[in-house]
Amino acid sequence: QLRTSLLDMSAVLPSLSRPANHSRISYAAMFDAGSTGTRIHVYTFIQSYSEQLPVLDNEVFHSIKPGLSAYADYPEAAGETVRMLLKVAKKSVPRLDWKRTPLVLRATAGLRLLPAAKAQALLDQVQHVFDESPFLVSDNSVSIMNGTNEGVLAWISLNFLTGHLKAPAMKTVGILDLGGGSTQITFLPKRRVSLFFFCFFRFVFPLHFCVSLIFNWAFLPQQTIESAPGDDYVARFDFLNSTSELYTHSYLGNGLMAGRLATLGALGAEGLEWQVFKSSCLPSTFRDDWSFGGLTYQVSGDPNGQAGYKLCYQEVLKAVKGIIHQPYELQDGGVFYAFSYYFDRAVDAGLINNVHGGTLQVRGFKKRAKEVCNKMTKYPPVSPFLCMDLTYITCLLKDGFGFKDSAVLQLTKKVKNVEASWALGAMLDHFHKLRIH
Ligand SMILES: O=c1ccn([C@@H]2O[C@H](COP(=O)(O)OP(=O)(O)O)[C@@H](O)[C@H]2O)c(=O)[nH]1
User: Fold this and answer.
1) Backbone dihedral region of 23: left (phi > 0), alpha (psi from -120 to 50 degrees) or beta?
2) How remote is the CA of residue 180 from the centroid of ligand 1, in Å?
3) Is 419 a known active-site residue?
4) Which residues form the active site (predicted)?
5) 245 confidence band (pLDDT: 50, 70, 90)
C-alpha cells in the first residue's frame, strides 16, 4: 500500500507513514467531471497528531462514460452518473466517517465547452445529489475548474507522487495531459542556481561548456516566462513559504476528441443531420456515427481512396498550427510524464504495456502513426480513429509544443497505485490552499 507524505513539499510533513496508533484515518472523495467520462477518487489519509498535514495511504478509483456534457439536455441523467459513483464512496468509507468526509467535484473541458446555462444546469444537478448525500458538502464543492489550475494541479500530483517535491532545489518533472476536450503542458523552467553550480566548478568543466551555461543562466529562465504569449501561460503557487513559478497552459479545443472534430472540419459545424465529415485519416471504406459532447456526427474515410500518413498529417496540422505555443525551453533532457490519452493511445498502438506504461521517444509515436495510416484500409486497426489519433499526437508534440524526435516521454497511468491526474493536487488545494495565481 502506498504510504507517502502528502505535502512533502511543505517540510512540515512526515517523511513517511506513521504508526496507525498515533494517527487518525480520514477520507476525501474527488470527482473528476471530464469531457469523456466522470471519475471518483476516494483517498484515505492518515493524519498524525504530531504533524500538520496528512499522509496518503490509499486511493480507490472508478470511472463511468460518457461525461456529464453528454447529458447537456438531460441534467437529471447527469445526476444519476454522480449518484452511481457515490456508491463507490459509500463502499470505500466506513459509515461512521461519512459525515466528515468531504465531496468535491471539479469539471474540466466538457463543461467549459458548453453554453454557460447548460453547464450550470448540470452543476446544479450535481450539487443537488451532493446535498442529498450523507457526506460533508461545503460551499465550493461543485465547480468548473479553470485550465491553469488543471495544469498546475496535475504537475503537483505527479511531482508529489514521484517524490520530486521533497526539497526546493530538487529536479522536477514536466507533465503532458491529453484530455478529450483540452490538453495541458506544465513544467518548471530551469533554475539558475543549478547552472551556476556547474560554472562554479569551472576547473572541472571545459571553458566552452561553462560559457554556454553562463549564457543559459543569464537568458533561459526569463526567456521561457517572458516569451510566453500571455499571463495565462505562467502560474504561481505557494509552498515551502515561497512562491514557485511554472510555465503552464491549457488549450481548450485541442484535446484528442476536439482534435478529431477540428481535423474533420466539424468543430462548431451546423447541419449535422445531413453532413458527412470526411478525412484521409480514416480507412477509405469506413463510415459511421460518432458522438462527443452530446452531439453526433456522421464521419467517413475519403471515398476516393485518399488515405495515409502524409495526407492525414496535413489535415491534423490545421488543428495545431498557429494555435500551440512552443515554449522557449523544453527542459532539455528533462523528464515529461505523459498520461490520459497519450497513455491510452500508446497502449492501443502496442507501443507500451497497458499496466506499467514505459518510456517512448516522440519518434516512436511518429513511426507507429505512419505504419497504421499507410496500411489501415488493408489491415483495419483496433479503432478506425487510431491513425488520426496517433498522427494528431505526433503533430501536437512536434509541430505543436516543439519536442524533438528524440525527446523521451514517460507514459504513465498510475504512480504508486494512484491515478496520474490533477485530482490529487486538487484535493491538496482544497485542504491546504496552494493559492494558485
Ligand atoms: O483519473 C483519470 C482521469 C482521466 N483519465 C483519462 O483521461 C482521458 C480523458 O480525459 P477527460 O475526459 O477528463 O478530458 P478533459 O475533460 O480533461 O479534456 C481519458 O483517456 C481517460 O481515461 C484517466 O486515465 N484517469
Assistant:
1) beta
2) 7
3) no
4) 150
5) very high
Question: Do 180 and 139 share a domain, yes or no?
Answer: no
- For residues 14 and 124, membership in a common domain is answered with yes
State which H helix or E strand residue 41 sits in. strand 38-48
pTM: 0.89
Spot the catalytic one: 150, 315, 329, 419: 150
Percent of the chain's residues with pLDDT above 70: 84
Looking at the structure, do residues 252 and 384 belong to the same domain, yes or no?
yes
* Whether 215 and 138 share a structural domain: no
Residue where a domain terminates, one of 144, 169, 198: 144
Q: Is 110 in the pocket of ligand 1 (CB under 6 A)?
A: yes
- Domain match, 366 and 381 both: yes
Residue pLDDT, tens place only, 176-224:
999 999 999 999 997 654 444 444 545 555 666 555 555 555 555 568 8
Query: Do 171 and 248 have their domain in common?
Result: yes
Give 421 Cα–ligand 1 centroid separation in angstroms. Answer: 8
DSSP string of 225-270?
HHTSSSGGGEEEEEETTEEEEEEEEEEET-SHHHHHHHHHT-TT-S
**Most ligand 1 atoms within 8 A of CB, residue of 175, 176, 340, 415 to mutate:** 340
Confidence of residue 49 (pLDDT cuts 50, 70, 90): low
ipTM metric: 0.97
Ligand 1 atom with the smallest distance to the CA of 35 is 16
What is the CATH number for 425? Answer: 3.30.420.150
**How many residues does this entry show for the chain?**
437
Q: What is the total count of domains within the chain?
A: 2
Q: Which domain holds residue 198?
A: 147-437
Beta strands 174-178 and 336-340 are parallel
Any atom of ligand 1 within 6 Å of the Cβ of 35: yes
Q: Output the CA 24–ligand 1 centroid distance in Å.
A: 32
Ligand 1: which residue has its CA nearest to atom 9? 179
Which grid coordinates are listed for 54? 496528512
182 carries a ligand binding annotation: yes
Where residue 126 sits, what CATH number does that domain have?
A: 3.30.420.40
Name the residue with higher pLDDT: 69 or 20.
Answer: 69
Residues 15 and 140 grouped into a single domain: yes
169 and 194 Cβ atoms separated by less than 8 Å: yes
What percent of the chain is modeled with pLDDT above 90? 70
- How large is the average pLDDT for residues 356-385? 92
Same domain, 136 and 175: no
Instruction: For residue 268, say whether it is annotated as part of any ligand binding site.
Output: no
Closest CA to 317 of 253, 259, 375: 259
Query: 394 CB under 6 A from ligand 1?
Result: no
